[in-house]
Amino acid sequence: MTGEAVARPNARKVREGLVVSARMNKTVVVSVSDRVRHRRYGKTMQKTRKFYAHDEANDAREGDRVRIAETRPLSRLKRWRVIEVVERAR
What is the pTM of this model? Predict the structure, then answer.
């Protein structure tokens, strides 16, 4: 490899969700909702999934809206990290 920057062949996934738990040290649980159509019946449903994300600065609090990005495995459950806090909880 030369000194020039090489673009990744497939960019890392980025999701936006709500922090549902911030009780662990440097870890938050982020709930990500997605609207999907039912495969057979076509009805639009809301699908929710929880991700464990690494929060190095312990910055995110419960109720905050955060942006998370895919990363290498950091622990048994953590495969995401917090990029930024989009909106603070009121």
Answer: 0.84
Q: 63 and 18 in contact (C-beta within 8 Å)? A: yes
Q: Is residue 47 part of a domain?
A: yes
The verdict on residue 39 lying in a domain is yes
Asked if the structure places residue 7 within a domain, the reply is no
Per-position DSSP letters for 7-76, written without gaps between them: --SSPPPEEEEEEEE--STTEEEEEEEEEEE-TTT--EEEEEEEEEEE-TT----TT-EEEEEE-S--SS
Domain of 62: which CATH number? Answer: 2.40.50.140
Q: pLDDT tens, position by position, for the chain (90 residues)? A: 566 667 778 889 999 999 999 999 999 999 999 999 999 999 999 999 999 999 999 999 999 999 999 999 999 999 999 999 999 988
